[in-house]
Amino acid sequence: MQKNTIAKYSIIEDNVIGITDEKTENYDLINVITVCLGGQNKEHYEGLLKVLDVLLTSERTLDDKRHILQEEFGIVMNEKIESEVWDMCNLSIGVYEEGYNDAYNDAYDESALNAIKSLMNKKGWDIEECMEVLDVPQDKQEEYKETILSELATV
């Protein structure tokens, strides 16, 4: 993916068989915009891309961000705007942590389910025995039981 770019993707009409006479607004209902930040050492590091990079990077201090926004973009920093800048600074960290936690939890769930099914197959234990041996947290037990039972029902 190219750094410091903004791209727009749209749906276009492409007549494969025959010719239609459809108005664009009837089918072009989706536009996708991608914004790829790349940092100050890349081409096109200016304007909107620079503002977004300054706001979203975790590599700059709040003071650095305040200085750049005031000096280079003429954004007067009052308490309200500074608070919003701080929120934006933490947004990227929050998005990263949320994605990491989701991926970790999904991997944990998959591993636990595989371990339970393996014990059931190899040892002949029931679901509750497997979860007890594996110390599956109480708040996950019902979810795992439902998942495994639904999988067994489809086999």
Question: What would you note in describing this structure?
Answer:
The chain has 155 residues and is mostly helical. Helices cover 59% and strands 8% of the residues.
How many β strands by DSSP?
A: 2
Strand order of the largest sheet: 1-2
Distance, first to last CA: 42 Å
> Strand percentage, roughly?
5-15%
* Spatial extent as radius of gyration: 26 Å
Q: Give the overall pLDDT as a whole number.
A: 84
In helices, the fraction of residues equals: 55-70%
**Helix count?**
5
What coarse outline follows from CA principal-axis ratios? flat
SSE class: mainly alpha
In short:
This protein is mainly α and about 160 residues long.
Key descriptive features of the protein:
155 residues; mainly alpha; two-stranded antiparallel ribbon; 2 strands; 8% strand; flat
